[in-house]
Amino acid sequence: MARELSAEERTRLKAELFQKVEGGFERMFGEGKLDELRTFVQKDNQACEIVDELWQWMMEKHLEKDEQTDEVDAKRRCPWCGGIGKSRGEAKEHRDLIGERGSVGFEREGLYCARCRKVFFPSGPAS
Question: Does the pTM exceed 0.85?
Answer without folding.
Answer: no
